[in-house]
């Protein structure tokens, strides 16, 4: 399995549309790496560049240190699976899976062993003799994945292969893919717009927006410490809250001042170093995830802030409270047992260890 | 908003049946939609939701039964005479018209003077936060923006009744999240009589005050949202209305003195009082099934194997196997256990639901 290195990749279409901008990424082997971003962020273009279906305008692609930028797709030995399953309708499931091995003229016994083994992994043993037309969408996608995985290529590129499947099958497939990569030392690149998919499957996530890499880290790190406001908003449901204000310092400490709202940042700035970028008067956004906002009917400490509950929205097993403080809005995600009425005052508190300070203009994380 | 509806109509449908050929879509269905209230028809595809909507607004007529709006029989009235606005799943916008002209279309048809029409368009556009997009055509709008335009068009004519037929089905999940809150705000601001249909329990939760669970053309349960959630009358309601769906564990019940003992094969649980059914389905919502390193006192504990930690945003669904049963536990935040790991799972009997395994009916309060 190969390590893939993307070095300063830029792709410009028709001389003007910049789909990927100076993008560098180091994709490890034996792992699932996700390219995550909204539609139009350049993730599919990047995948096509890795596979060799597209040539970058600038930059190089390396497999295990070898420059493959000018190597054709066929010679890169990369396997791809797409959102809509590709199966050969005239062949049985067995022949579909065996096809890439037969093309390589592998010995018959070897082929048979590999086909049966992968069929077992994907619970396809019972349908091996059937034609694809009798199969449902999920089973067809299993066949497409099995055929891709059986040929043991240098790397797998998967483009939202689970998007159209029903939730129960999706769970089964994710389990299979996760097992497969960790047990068999595969390199897998997974392209998706679905944060849940990326957070569930990946060892590492590259968050993309407008052709640029915003953050590359483990799911835990990307979720807990988003490097910019977009990543904070895009991951999580609902995404991170942002309260805009001006950074101020006085004898009393450090604060964010917003209209009708003042939040004490003393703990935060004391605790974390490297606050040189925090200058008086800087426009900042403080970010905190809805599930970390603490709420209560009473003021429990001096740093609790009073707000009005404008909306209560139950979301399955949790409840969202929309709070208004001054002209700031924020959302708290609480358990279903917490009962507040719309219009009622709610005291809230932002626990220091979950608070991030972003530069309002650039959106970049400061502390 | 310069207008808010004052007297809102109540809609009663009584004994509605509808067949398409030999296929019975609605089966002697009766339901009241209260005035100024958001009601959600929740049920799987094919349950009859859209047919019922079409019958309420007059796009389709029932084989038998009647529809009354504020007591007046409208069963045989034309759609245009019922004064009901409807928003469809596929938006149904006119591609060649700007957002402004789309929103104003129902007003133009009704010969509303241009000045009044423009004022109303601006008002609804502001309410739905699309005032900056009014000059664009549908092709230049995102899915969420198109849906807002479709809703604005339904609102512009000030119908006191508005029907939403799965309006969020074709929308990205991030936008759906925003639209959920938007629907509630709109209902609060304007106060119409609103009917939603959806197959999605999360949407039903978010948008409605009253829920009607529908299956095979019949209402399974109707009531206040929280009431239906906490007291499902049968297994279907319990498992369908909730996300993630309720875990169901089949148990055999036996009598021990004045108590009953439930045996699942991988745990036994003690229940005060009698259980008349020999076989029961025990239901536990995923947020009431906890994980721990060891068995817990006072709780029903059992060992389980981790299948997958499915992160769904700010929560994780941990899929488990216990005995031969697939179970889900909802854990706060991001949790990524290793596949195949063994864990203890536990729940408290006071959070469990019991259903008769033959009829599916609820065996009383939890």
Mean pLDDT of chain A: 88
The main β sheet of chain B shows up as:
6 strands, mixed
CATH-scheme architecture of the largest domain in chain B: 3-Layer(aba) Sandwich
Give the mean pLDDT of chain B: 90
Low-confidence blocks of residues of chain A: none
Strand content of chain A: 25-35%
- Identify the overall geometry of chain B: globular
Structure notes:
The complex is a heterodimer of chains A (367) and B (366). By secondary structure, chain A is α+β, with helices and mostly antiparallel strands. Chain A has two domains: 4-233, P-loop containing nucleotide triphosphate hydrolases (Rossmann fold, 3-Layer(aba) Sandwich); 241-359, Nucleic acid-binding proteins (OB fold (Dihydrolipoamide Acetyltransferase, E2P)). Chain A has helices at residues 43-51, 93-103, 108-121, 137-150, 167-184, 195-201, 219-224, 229-234, 266-271, and strands at 4-13, 17-27, 32-36, 58-63, 66-67, 78-81, 155-159, 188-192, 204-209, 212-217, 241-250, 253-258, 261-264, 283-288, 294-296, 305-315, 318-325, 328-335, 345-349, 356-359. Chain A has a six-stranded mixed sheet, sandwiched between helices. In chain A, strands 13-12-11-14-20 form a five-stranded antiparallel sheet. In chain A, strand 12 and strand 13 form a beta hairpin. Chain A is elongated, with a radius of gyration of 25 Å. The model of chain A has no long low-confidence stretch (mean pLDDT 88). Chain B has two domains: 11-234, P-loop containing nucleotide triphosphate hydrolases (Rossmann fold, 3-Layer(aba) Sandwich), CATH 3.40.50.300; 247-356, Nucleic acid-binding proteins (OB fold (Dihydrolipoamide Acetyltransferase, E2P)), CATH 2.40.50.140. Chain B is built from eight helices and 20 strands. Chain B has helices at residues 49-57, 99-109, 114-127, 143-156, 173-190, 201-207, 225-230, 235-240; strands at residues 11-20, 23-33, 38-42, 64-69, 72-73, 84-87, 161-165, 193-198, 210-215, 218-224, 247-256, 259-263, 268-272, 279-284, 290-292, 300-311, 315-322, 325-332, 342-347, 353-356. Chain B has a six-stranded mixed sheet with strand order 6-7-8-3-9-10, sandwiched between helices. A five-stranded antiparallel sheet of chain B has the order 13-12-11-14-20. The longest helix of chain B is centred in the middle third of the chain and has 18 residues, at 173-190. Chain A binds chain B through residues 38, 171, 174-175, 178-179, 182, 193-196, 199-200, 219-220, 223-224, 234-239, 289-291, 311, 313-318, 320, 322, 333, 335-336, 342, and chain B through 172-174, 177, 180-181, 184-185, 188, 201-202, 205-206, 225-226, 242-244, 285-287, 307-315, 319, 330, 332-334, 336, 339.
